[in-house]
Amino acid sequence: MLTADGFDKAFIGTATRCGQPTLAVYSVDKCIKILMKRDGMTSEEALEYFYYNVVGGWHGETTPLFVESISFTEACESYWEEENERTKSEKNLDSSS
Questions:
Q1: Please, what is the average pLDDT of the chain?
Q2: N or C: which end of the chain has fewer CB within 10 A?
Q3: pLDDT for 30-75, tens place per residue?
Q4: Strands, E, within the chain: which ranges?
Q5: Is 26 helix (H, G, I), strand (E, B) or coil?
Q6: In whole angstroms, how far apart are CA 36 and each of 4, 12, 62?
Q7: Which 8-state DSSP code applies to residue 70?
Q8: 7: buried, middle or exposed (CB in 10 Å: 19+, 13-18, 0-12)?
Q9: In Å, how far are 38, 61, 75, 82, 84 from 20, measured between CA atoms?
Q10: How far is CA 43 from CA 33, 37, 69, 73, 82, in A?
Q11: Considering only CA atoms, which of 3, 15, 53, 62 is closest in space to residue 32?
Q12: How many CB atoms lie within 10 A of CB 49?
């Protein structure tokens, strides 16, 4: 199992799927707090660094997962907003052809 260096205190468990390797799972909120405390970053700097350098790194199929804590309702709303945007984009592409 591949782990994220320097984020041991943000580790919240593992994730498994049928036929796939077990993945390390980390809390995004805890990772951001670690960067702010350990590296003296502002929240803005920590977020930018985290999403570009940590989440943005792909190390194969065992790359760790980073979970944002949101409610089920928030997740559903976010999904439908993204789905509506995707549908609008597809319609725009179809009409421009």
A1: 93
A2: C
A3: 999 999 999 999 999 999 999 999 999 999 999 999 999 999 999 9
A4: 11-15, 23-27, 65-67
A5: strand
A6: 16, 19, 26
A7: -
A8: buried
A9: 33, 8, 24, 27, 31
A10: 8, 10, 17, 25, 25
A11: 53
A12: 16
Cβ atoms 63, 57 nearer than 8 A = yes
* 4 Ramachandran zone, left/alpha/beta (phi>0; psi -120 to 50): beta
For residue 22, the Cα-to-chain-centroid distance in whole angstroms is 17
What is the distance between the alpha carbons of residues 55 and 63, in angstroms, rounded to a whole number?
9
